[in-house]
Amino acid sequence: MDKSRSNSKQKVETKQVDLDTGMPDLPKKELFAITFAFLGINMAFSLQSSQMSRICQTIGANPNNLGFFFIFPPLMGMIVQPIMGKMSDRTWNRFGRRLPYLLFGTPIAALVLIMLPFSGSLGFGYGSMAAMIYAAAAVCLMDLFSNICMQPSRMIVGDMVNNKQKNFAWSWQQVFSNGGGILATILPFIFTMFGMSNTAKRGVVPNTVIWSYLCAAAVLLFTGLWTVFNVKEYDPETYAKYHHIDPEEQNKSVSLWKLIKTAPRAFWEINLVQLFSWFAIMYVWTYTTGTCARNIWHTSDVTSAGYQAAGNWYGILTAVYSIAGIVWGLIYAHAKAGSRKKWYTFGMIVGGLGLVWMTFVTTKTTSIIAMIMFGIGNFSINTIPFTLLTSSLNGKNEGAYLGLFNVGICVPQIVASLCSFFLFPLVGHNQPMMLLLGGISLLIGALAVQAIHEGVTVKEA
């Protein structure tokens, strides 16, 4: 990057540059293998986001307390990802640097994924404390091991892909991610079409949802192992050469606290945007099913066929915004490196307007249009920040920084969940109004994008 600035404290001129220009272009086969794991990983996360509210209310959770369940996933991410990033920065063995964690996490993630949909089938009783505790534990374990799978997949892109190919690689990763989201969220609808029961007795999760989770677990296992056995990471010497760092220096252990204090400027600037972005996304996950049920099916009874139909429809809407993200991603993959902030701002604005519109929709057709708009924003939020961040890191402690960066994704989700305990009653227990707040949050975040300074800052000679 060519932008220059003056540091008033040290009185030295600095500029922002790319340090990975010497890295080779990777063949598309390799880029495919690096990003393919996200198909299965996001099947898990998409089922969590699209079905967790439905499952929890089906087994008897009070809608006023849904935020409680949605605190656990980001909390797990906050704890796991920085630690795993720091550990993997120092992991070099015959399986690689990041891949050993994916190899360990994938089978366990597939196993714990299927715990949640059976919450209502184990005889705990509708709305019982045992059912709530089991569901909370299932959510924690599912997110813990899904994070163990997700973070190495992100780190490999930063490790192996040069700045010229970063837009392409992160776009592919999000395309596979959205593809997994589509598969996961339309499965209940497809199973219903083929005659599987989409309702069950009080407190029991319908078979359409249970079988969706079983299919997602199988895909998660297959795609994760595909990446493990088809990607060859750089050895320590090659990595140091491509990233222009001292081979000995990359083995030095630095505390997470010191890394936070010395984080690049872009790290904090992007996290400010993330605060508004993930606040909004948390409310999409939590309140879209209820919004559809209220505005389109005119019901709030979670045991009714109308509410369960709304749950299936939210799955379709998730597929819609995922498809929109895929199309947008294929376009963005060809964007110039210097235009990332413009794409980011545009995506946030369109996504915010989509959520505002979603608040007032009364038909399936208008809900589709609104969620197409949100899909453009969702793609931007899940792709461009990582491109901006990894192009602003110098190759040292990259895994740790990506893990710490995830805290900036998790904290807004926790804040949003906690805020829901007073915001939801404040808006009259009106779930569509919570989506309106999310839309406003995205529009504010779009303004903050302009403050981001991309690139590695170095002193000029």
TrEMBL record:
It is a multi-pass membrane protein. One of its GO terms (molecular function) is transmembrane transporter activity. It comes from the Bacteria. Gene3D superfamilies: MFS general substrate transporter like domains (1.20.1250.20). Keywords: Membrane, Sugar transport, Transmembrane, Transmembrane helix, Transport. One of its GO terms (cellular component) is plasma membrane. The chain crosses the membrane at residues 31-48, 68-87, 99-118, 124-145, 175-196, 208-229, 266-285, 313-331, 343-362, 368-389, 401-427, 433-452. It is found in: Cell membrane. Pfam families: MFS_1. Its main location: membrane. This is Sugar transport protein.
